[in-house]
Amino acid sequence: AQSVAQPEDQVNVAEGNPLTVKCTYSVSGNPYLFWYVQYPNRGLQFLLKYITGDNLVKGSYGFEAEFNKSQTSFHLKKPSALVSDSALYFCAVRDIGETGRRALTFGSGTRLQVQP
Amino acid sequence: DGGITQSPKYLFRKEGQNVTLSCEQNLNHDAMYWYRQDPGQGLRLIYYSQIVNDFQKGDIAEGYSVSREKKESFPLTVTSAQKNPTAFYLCASSIQGRRGEQYFGPGTRLTVT
């Protein structure tokens, strides 16, 4: 079975400061990992994904994430936060070894609040 | 929100009535998915379909039904058997295979009273 944990319900950061949104995962094999962002009453927008290769993945809007296999983590980062980054962020995983289920498993979400 | 449309955006129904949520995509994706979102619980998978005329139950399929008669369309029916149907429903699609990210529609907020 695959699962994802986002340990923080909310992250607060001042504009211009670096931000980190944490994600840890559990899979039986190797993971495909994804980050999505959701604005109020909207669908999810894809930010970035890790499939294989370089552990540091760069995505949309200046976001990046670091895959750490030993810590089973995939934290989302941005060097300088913007007020417009305030939204709900979801981490998701798919187990490469899971041949049956093809859908993603999502974390519970982390609300990012960037103060001006 | 890409090439996925969901209608309507807001839907109100009386308890005991079945209701069908529409999901259409023009991305030529083979796979389509339905998720339910409740506050603080993230997204939970209801049903998914990898190909036309085939679909599988997700984690919370009880009280829901789907059909996949066309590649572009994956409607979800919330039946009167669903005990707590009020939620935000999200439809998604992806290319076939495990690497592809999912693209989401704008969602339908269903309120049942």
Can you characterise this structure?
- The complex is a heterodimer of chains A (116) and B (113).
- With 116 residues, chain A is an all-beta fold.
- Helices cover 0% and strands 52% of the residues of chain A.
- Chain A has no helices and twelve strands.
- In chain A, the strands form three sheets. In chain A, strands 2, 5, 6, 10, 11 and 12 form a six-stranded mixed β-sheet that branches.
- The model of chain A has no long low-confidence stretch (mean pLDDT 92).
- With 113 residues, chain B is mostly beta strands.
- Chain B is built from no helices and eleven strands.
- Chain B is globular.
- The model of chain B has no long low-confidence stretch (mean pLDDT 91).
- Chains A and B meet through β5, β6 and β11 of A and β4, β5, β9 and β10 of B.
Reconstruct the topology from this structure.
The complex is a heterodimer of chains A (116) and B (113).
Chain A: E1 3-5, E2 10-14, E3 19-21, E4 24-26, E5 31-38, E6 44-50, E7 56-58, E8 64-68, E9 73-78, E10 87-95, E11 105-106, E12 110-115
Parallel strand pairs in A: 2-12
Antiparallel strand pairs in A: 1-4, 3-9, 5-6, 5-10, 7-8, 8-9, 10-11, 10-12
Chain B: E1 4-7, E2 10-13, E3 19-25, E4 31-37, E5 43-51, E6 54-57, E7 64-66, E8 76-78, E9 87-94, E10 103-104, E11 108-112
Parallel strand pairs in B: 2-11
Antiparallel strand pairs in B: 1-3, 3-8, 4-5, 4-9, 5-6, 7-8, 9-10, 9-11
